[in-house]
Design brief:
single chain, alpha/beta, Rossmann fold, five-stranded parallel sheet, 9 helices, binds thymidine-5'-diphosphate
Length: about 220
Amino acid sequence: MSQARFITFEGGEGTGKSTQSKLLAQNLKAAGIGCIETREPGGSNFAEAIRQIILDPSTPDHGPLSEALLFSAARVDHLEKTIRPALEDGNWVLCDRFADSTRAYQGAAGGLQTNMLLQLERLVIANTPPNLTLILDLDVTRAFDRVAKRKKDQQAEANACDDAYERRNQEFHEALRQGFLAIAQAEPERCVVIDAEPEQPHIAEQIWQCVHERLLKE
Ligand code: TYD
């Protein structure tokens, strides 16, 4: 029985993180490895309540510091109630977004200082850093096209997707992308950049190989 591992998926909107998290969960289960899928903001009752507040389109105007603190409060609860208990039970945890999203959205793109965010992160995630972070990277224009297509395909749910974050401009999303790439460069032992341009099955294969090499090989 392999040791339980914590894997996070990161990247901008439209990069396919959620789909890849599901596909990795299927691959792990097929290999006999128990896992849970979770997401941020959210993943526990209190954190889901905070998610509603942060993503409420009727109150879109909040600064990066308020956001970083709210995402962090949600993360503390998510770790306590969902992530750590699952790992202690021997299940792998796959999380769609985690602390690198705060570094990229509120830091690189939002303007908060990296040192301050790193201090906050140490306090929040303490002894539970991810074993592996998969950063899905995609050209910003391509990502916008995908988000637009997804909204068209889900007409009925279009309003639900139209949150304050997806309406941010190209410059913001470019800063975000560079922010994620900088994290990968600074922490190569934890992070792997995955090209999100190819078809989903191809990306899933890349991810499975990476998980195998980094976490399943002796
Ligand atoms: P969500 O609808 O889950 O977006 P996605 O499908 O792209 O993950 O909304 C989450 C939004 O919150 C998304 O725009 C990224 C943002 N976010 C931050 O700004 N900071 C954070 O720490 C986290 C976890 C998310």
